[in-house]
Amino acid sequence: MYRLIYKSRSKTPADWGLVNSIIGSSQEGNAELNVSGVLLATKSYFLQVLEGSFEKVNELYYTIVKDPRHDRVQLISFTCAEERIFRSWTMHGIGVFNFNRELAERLRQTYGEEGGDVRLPTEEWQALALIADIRRSES
Predict the structure, then answer these.
(1) Is residue 116 part of a domain?
(2) pTM attached to this predicted model
(3) Alpha-carbon gap, residue 19 to 94, rounded angstroms
């Protein structure tokens, strides 16, 4: 089992319509490929985690690199993982642009700011910590 994390710039300002279009196209295909994951979006950037077999995750990554909605795709990590973190999500979307002020400010203080939004980290441990912090706030 492998985990891939990447960050990219959105070619257009991200909103729920764009996030939902990406999630919608991902969920069905990911279920067939036995891939799980999460997509975080700010107004300007995406951070995505994909989990599954080496071949399937690698295949999906190359599809994403060619996707016209993404620009400047940066590979953060592609590593072997003992188990899935997102086993119940074929793809889950999180709109960081939609957070309440208190949560957004707390995340900006912890992870920094980028273009007025929460900075999406470019280190694996920080990316996973950001997602964990968001998941805790949703509970």
Answers:
(1) no
(2) 0.92
(3) 8
Take residue 67 and report the two structure tokens written for it.
């996707």
Residue with tokens 């089992």: 1
Which residues have a Cβ under 8 Å from the Cβ of 40 and sit 6 or more positions away? 46, 47, 48, 94, 96, 120, 130, 131, 134
Whether 113 maps to a domain, the answer reads no
Q: What is the count of structural domains for the chain?
A: 1
Q: What is the pLDDT of residues 51-76, one digit of tens each?
A: 999 999 999 999 999 999 899 999 99
DSSP-derived secondary structure letter, 119: P
77 is a domain residue: yes
Rounded Cα gap, residues 95 and 125, in angstroms: 20
CATH of the domain at 20: 3.30.70.100
Residue 75, beta-bridge partner list: 6
The answer, yes or no, to whether residue 139 has pLDDT greater than 80, is: no
Q: Is residue 136 part of a domain?
A: no
Question: pLDDT tens digits for 79-90?
Answer: 999 999 998 888
Query: Could you list the residue range(s) of the whole structural domain that residue 54 is in?
Result: 2-98
β partners of residue 95: 41
